[in-house]
Amino acid sequence: MSEPDDALAAAPHLRRFHELHPEVPLVVLPPEPTGPPGPPVPDHVLADERDATDETLASLLTAVGPAAAAAHVRTLWRSGRVDDTVVPVAEASVPLGTGTAGAVAGPLTEALERGGWRLRSGRSGAARFLDAERAERHVRVVTVEGRVVVTARGRELPVATATQHRLMGVQAEGEA
Predict the structure, then answer these.
(1) Mean pLDDT confidence for 55-82
(2) In what helix (H) or strand (E) does residue 1 lie, and over which residues does it extend?
(3) Of 6 and 123, the one with more pLDDT
(4) What is the DSSP string of 64-95?
(5) Residues of 72-82 as b/e, b for ≥16 C-beta within 10 angstroms?
(6) What pLDDT does 101 receive?
(7) Is residue 104 pLDDT above 50, yes or no?
(8) Is residue 95 a contact partner of residue 146, using CB atoms and an 8 Å limit?
């Protein structure tokens, strides 16, 4: 889109804003090119990243102590933010039972701090969250509705489309 009118035609909310406030200059930047993510990684790299993600979650649950024994844990693959990438995601839902959110979230925060994670906390509606990042890996701790949900995300890895479909359980056309 080289013309300003083309950009406004593709974004009706911006067009309407421009109509209401013609005195305000609008700058519409082109989307960032995503480019290829790189050559597909071999299966052993995928397995290592999934193991590292599982280990991150397991170490955090160990820090919680006995309350984590009732946690429901699962690990799966998700599409990455860039085409042809996948990311392992391990998640645990820890019910609070008669305990308090602080009894679970406090030890998690301490474990992340000791592990050298960069932390950021906040609130979204009724949910309180803690985001942590270290070496292209992410952890999110959310406290909501009587439970603490801990999500560990591994690194995004480039894969072939067939591998992505296999990891995510997507069936190709014609498969039963």
Answers:
(1) 91
(2) none
(3) 123
(4) HGGGGGG-EEEEEEEE-SSTTEEEEEEEEEEE
(5) eeebebeebee
(6) 77
(7) yes
(8) yes
- On the question of pLDDT at 31 being above 80, the answer is no
Reference 121, options 132, 113, 130; nearest CA is: 130
According to the model, what pLDDT value does residue 157 have?
96
Write down the mean pLDDT value for the chain: 85
Alpha-carbon gap, residue 109 to 2, rounded angstroms: 48
Q: What is the mean pLDDT of residues 97-124?
A: 87
Cα–Cα distances in Å, from 140 out to 129, 150, 160?
7, 6, 28
With H, G, I as helix, E, B as strand and everything else as coil, classify residue 10.
helix
DSSP for 11-70, written as a single string: -HHHHHHHHH-TTS----PPPPP-----SPPPHHHHHHHHHHHHHHHHHHHHHHGGGGGG
User: What is the C-alpha to C-alpha distance for residues 53 and 155, in angstroms, rounded to an integer?
Assistant: 9
Task: Return all residues near 12 (Cβ < 8 A) that are at least 6 apart.
Answer: none
Could you tell me the two tokens for 76?
A: 């799966």
Residue 111 has pLDDT above 90, yes or no: yes
Residue 39: what are its φ and ψ, rounded to 5°? Answer: -70, 150
The answer to whether 76 touches 55, Cβ cutoff 8 Å, is no
